Amino acid sequence: MSKEPSLTGQLGACHRQLDEIFLLHQEALIQGQLQNAVGILHSYESCHTLHRQFEDDVLLPVYAGLEQPGKWNATLYQQEHQKIGELYSRIEEGLHELMGQSLDPSQMRRNIIHLLDREKSFKGLCEHHQEREEQSLLIELDRQTDTYWRSAVMETFSAQWRQTLEKEMENIRSCSEGRN
Ligand SMILES: [Fe+2]
Ligand SMILES: [Fe+2]
User: Fold this and answer.
1) How far does the centroid of ligand 2 lie from the alpha carbon of residue 12, in Å?
2) Which residues 6+ apart lie within 8 Å of 178 measured at CB?
3) 14 alpha carbon, distance to own chain's centre
4) Is the separation of the CB atoms in 41 and 115 below 8 Å?
5) pLDDT tens, 57-82?
6) pLDDT, tens digit, for every residue of 147-160?
């Protein structure tokens, strides 16, 4: 098996971890634990921001200059990052609105369903975006860049990612145990 540093492998693993955090947020949401749901959503955003910034600042400029262009251009990924940010803000707003309302249990459940519907579009966009990254951005960088460059950028990013993930998972545990 190859020991080559793989952006596809490493960033793909980040995608799965982000998806898992979002699911934890949704678990809290369907149980009506809104404070917990918002805490986990913020942890998701911290991890996602670090991930997105690494792609925007480090990977996309190199991808844009590759000799053999990938299937999708760098601008598309940047636009998707922006769209993901916009949809995220709408979800956060919706959740804060819900927290400020005093509703009977049935209406609260219906409003939660409404928010979950909004989150479905967000998840769909993230899923397609991640697929496009794994099918072009990451795979082309793995194919066309220098091993030393990939090792160096991944070493820095991995250390930051581990640290952030550890901190946010602790926050999520605190939310779940009602310590926040
Ligand atoms: Fe991305
Ligand atoms: Fe990504």
Assistant:
1) 7
2) 36
3) 8
4) no
5) 999 999 999 999 999 999 999 999 99
6) 999 999 999 999 99
Give the number of residues written for the chain.
Answer: 180
CA 129 to ligand 1 centroid distance, Å: 6
The mean of the pLDDT values for the chain is 95
Helices 7-30 and 105-132 pack at an angle, to 10 degrees, of 170
Q: Is-contact 130 70, C-beta < 8 A?
A: no
Q: In angstroms, what is the span from residue 130 Cα to ligand 2's centroid?
A: 5
User: Of the candidates 162, 144, 164, which has an alpha carbon nearest to the alpha carbon of residue 154?
Assistant: 162
Ligand 1 center to 102 CA (angstroms): 37
SS3 32: coil
The three-state (H, E, C) secondary structure of 112-156, written as one string: HHHHHHHHHHHHHHHHHHHHHHHHHHHHHHHHHCCHHHHHHHHHH
Q: pTM for the complete prediction?
A: 0.93
Rounded alpha-carbon distances, angstroms, from residue 29 to 25, 113, 170: 6, 9, 19
